[in-house]
Design brief:
The protein has 3 helices and 24 strands. By secondary structure, the protein is mostly beta strands. It has a 5-stranded antiparallel sheet with strand order 1-6-5-4-3. Strands 7, 8, 9, 10 and 11 form a 5-stranded antiparallel sheet that branches. A hairpin with a 2-residue loop joins strand 8 and strand 9.
């Protein structure tokens, strides 16, 4: 395993090169926050078309806490190879580069010091990222298939497992000690293809994708809010604003809490081939609107019954 990680690190070191093969010099320079994109409202929009959203398969976007670096994975439709892509804000201009081959679905920890890559991770260094490391035997198991692992500010992990009926597990820290992962309840682990979880930094909610009978077609995004007793509430479909008859997956909320990012793939491509997915974004008020509805229902059901009238 050590030799394998070293080899991948070597690839990471030599592949930080210009991504000119994916772009054209005549494209306008991107400047300003969010790769210079006009923020969306309550209707999802493709994020950075022509830069992040391309003819290739672009997935799993993630910002650093200072919002000056954006990472995502891309599958080249010509070579069928996956790569980890970075946009970095330098001198108020976003520069695009290839970090290296993709290892797991990239997602940054809330403090930006760790980039989780499935059951692997990299640590932030003074000049970039460390070699790829294993999370250890508790997670690096041959009988588990971890695609995406998301961490909270307290270090709680939530992750999927495609080798065991597409379930989501959680691993918390108690008294400074990492606890063995355990399955989340049936309100989370139900339906098909339950995967790609995102836990809010403050652990107030969990978003994931699944195919359920109450959905809009293929996989939809669902959310569960943490209850006062620490349990997870029922799964709530994010609704027709977000979900379509295609595939919605891999939710992520920007570090500033303002925008929900996710992947969307149509059911079929215009040319009749396999559709490629793009990263979309939408105002995170869609989450707060659902939270408000849940809070109102909880308040209503918690009120004592009225006494009978005279």
């Amino acid at each position: 395993m050590k030799h394998a990680c070293s080899s991948v690190f070597l690839l990471l070191s030599i592949l930080v090169v210009s991504i000119s093969s994916y772009s054209q010099d005549e494209r306008p320079v991107l400047k300003g926050p969010y790769l210079g994109q006009k923020p969306p409202g309550l209707t999802p929009e493709i994020f950075a078309p022509g830069y992040v959203a391309t003819r290739h398969r672009d997935y799993s976007g993630s910002f650093t806490p200072d919002m000056k670096e954006f990472y995502f994975s891309r599958r080249d439709v010509d070579t069928e190879k996956w790569r980890l892509i970075r946009f970095k804000l330098e001198n108020n201009q976003w520069q695009e580069s290839v970090v290296g081959p993709r290892v797991g679905r990239p997602i940054l920890a809330p403090d930006g010091k760790i980039m989780h890559l499935g059951n692997k991770y990299m640590e932030r260094t003074s000049n970039g990222w460390s070699e790829i490391k294993s999370l250890g035997p508790m997670f690096d198991r041959e009988d588990w298939g971890i695609m995406r692992l998301s961490a909270s500010a307290k270090g709680t992990y939530v992750f999927d497992d495609y080798k065991n009926n597409d379930v989501i597990r959680i691993s918390e820290i108690e008294d400074g000690i990492r606890q063995p992962p355990k399955l989340l309840g049936p309100q989370i682990n139900s339906g098909k293809w339950t995967a790609h979880p995102f836990i809010a930094p403050d652990e107030s909610y969990l978003i994931w994708d699944s195919e359920k009978d109450d959905g809009y077609g293929d996989t939809d995004l669902y959310i569960s809010f943490r209850q006062q007793d620490g349990s997870w509430g029922e799964a709530i479909n994010l609704g027709a604003i977000i979900n379509t008859d295609g595939v919605e997956a891999s939710a992520y909320v920007s570090p500033d809490g303002k925008y929900l990012f996710f992947n969307r793939s149509p059911t079929s491509a215009e040319d009749g081939g396999d559709p490629e997915g793009d990263i979309y974004w939408v105002d995170s008020q869609v989450i707060e609107m659902l939270r408000g509805v849940v809070d109102q229902i909880s308040l209503w059901t918690a009120q004592p019954p009225r006494p009978p009238g005279p």
